[in-house]
Amino acid sequence: MGGLGYTIDAIGRGWRVDPLLLAALAAAAALYLAGVVRRRRPWPPARTTAFLAGLAVLWVALASGADTYAGELLSAHMVQHMLLTLVAPPLLIAGAPVTLALGALPAGPRGSLARALRSRALRWATWPPLALALFAGALVATHVPVVYELALRSPVAHVAEHALYVATALLFWAPLVGSEPLPHRPSPAARVLWLLLAMPPMALVGVALLTTDSVAYAPYADSARALGGSAVADQHLAGTIMWVGGKLVLVAAVLVVGWAALVREERQQTARERYAEALR
Predict the structure, then answer these.
(1) 198 lies in which domain range?
(2) Concatenated DSSP letters for the chain?
């Protein structure tokens, strides 16, 4: 096994066609674009691009070699986990689908959605401390060997794992990215704090895999021999992807949040200065 190059090659050549997945992603894209057309006010193209890019990332994660080789290469499986938790969800949230729906739906469904946004369940689910706990807990728990190996053996458990990743990641990212009308809107400083607090759980899993010299997940030992490589070396690569890759994505998110806060403050300061000039 040739390390990162081998993993990238496996992800690139392991594509498969999943009609159900394609239909679901196409339906999501069609509904979003229909909302853009139906909405009376102009919709920012950047939001549309972000949402469609998020769907594309889901397609890559679930139809490429990242999924096909998930049971043979831990590194490929880890790339899939990163796409499902750190890339696709913030892009989908940045597309502001809830805000779009509120402006495009008829009165009845719009009212139901507005009531759901004010519900106690959503208030709790998107409360940043709880959202972070769910996100981190899902990430750490699913990498415990007995749970991880269950997902490798059972297609149902594997799908449930993916659904858990996406659901908890959406809850985590929703209050931190974009401008959806959610119950909790943390300040820029608080957003940076929650993003920083998401790093240790990823580091925990990544460092554990990187520093362990025995095979953490038994099924990979056989697949590594079949591929003519080392399961431990691939495991170390997976740990690096989780630790370094996850940290880089979260640091990038911190920079984006900080930059957006500076731009917002600059605009507000400009508006205050113009208002003061008008009063003179």
Answers:
(1) 3-279
(2) --HHHHHHHHHHH-----HHHHHHHHHHHHHHHHHHHH-SS---HHHHHHHHHHHHHHHHHHHSHHHHTTTT-HHHHHHHHHIIIIIHHHHHHHT-HHHHHHHHS-HHHHHHHHHHHTSHHHHHHT-HHHHHHHHHHHHHHTTSHHHHHHHHH-HHHHHHHHHHHHHHHHHHHTTTSS----S----HHHHHHHHHHTHHHHHHHHHHHHH--S-SSTHHHHHHHHHTS-HHHHHHHHHHIIIIIHHHHHHHHHHHHHHHHHHHHHHHHHHHHHHHHHH-
Please indicate whether residue 230 or residue 208 has the higher confidence score (pLDDT): 208
User: Tokens in use for 253?
Assistant: 């998110």
- Report the alpha-carbon distance of residue 204 to residue 239 in Å, rounded: 9
Would you say residue 93 has pLDDT above 60? yes
pLDDT tens digits, one per residue of 97-111 = 999 998 888 888 888
Q: Kindly state the percentage of the chain with pLDDT values over 90.
A: 57
CA–CA distances in Å: residue 86 to residues 145, 148, 199: 22, 19, 11
Q: What's the domain count of the chain?
A: 1
pLDDT of residue 88: 97
Q: How far is CA 113 from the centre of its chain?
A: 23
Q: Cβ-count burial of 153 within 10 angstroms (0-12 exposed, 13-18 middle, 19+ buried)? A: exposed
Average pLDDT over residues 208-225: 86
CA-based nearest residue to 79, from 98, 97, 64, 101: 64
Neighbours of 245 (CB within 10 A): 18
Tokens describing residue 196: 């920083």
What's the pLDDT score for residue 156?
94
